[in-house]
AcrR family transcriptional regulator (Enteractinococcus fodinae), 214 residues
Amino acid sequence: MKSETSSSKGKSVPQFLPRVLATRKALLEGARRAFVEHGGFAQTSIDAIVARSQSSLGSLYNQYGSKAEIFLALYEDYHSKLWQVSHAAIQGSRDAGEPDPLRQYLEGLKAYLRECWEERDLTKLFYWGDTAPGFELLARDTLRLWIAENFDQLALDDKKNGELLAAAVTATVGAGARAICDSRTREEAATVADFYAELVTRLVMPTLEAERLN
C-alpha cells in the first residue's frame, strides 16, 4: 500500500497528514474547552481534555506528550492568531494608502484588542488562570517578541529609549487586553480598543515628534 498521494502541484503529501492535523485541532479545541471550564491547568484532568476532544488518551500523548505541552501549544496557537490579526490590520492600513507608521500601528493595536475580546475565554485563562509549568518562560519570550515588533512597527530611531518606549507601549496594550475582557458587547469592546489606541498615541507622540525634529 502506498503511504503517499500526489497533490495537484505534483508534490507528495502523506496520506495520514490530514488525519493528524484534524486530530491535533480536535485536541486543541477540547483542551480549550476543558481548561476554560475547569478554570486553569491544575484543575483540569487529562481525561477531561480527552472527553472534550472526543479523541483518545493515546492520541493526546502521541501528538502533544503531556497536559503541560498541550496547554503551551494552546497558548502558542492563541498568540499566533493575535499576531496574524494585528499584522493583517497593519498591512491593510498600508494597502489603503496610510503612510504614517503610528496610524498603521494603531489599526493593528485595535484589531489585536478586538481579537482579545473575541477570544476572551483564552485571554482570561492566560492572564488570570492557573497555568502550566513552562508557561512563564514562554510568556516572557512572547513579550520580548512583541516589544521588538512594536519598536519596529512604530519606526523608533533611538535604540535605548526606543526600546523603553516600546516596552511601555506593550505594557499598555497588555492592560487593554485585560480590560477589554469586561466588555459585554462587541461595540463596547471596540470602544475600549479605541480608548487604548488613544492612550498609546499620547504615550508615543512626544518621542515621535522629537525624532522628526531631529
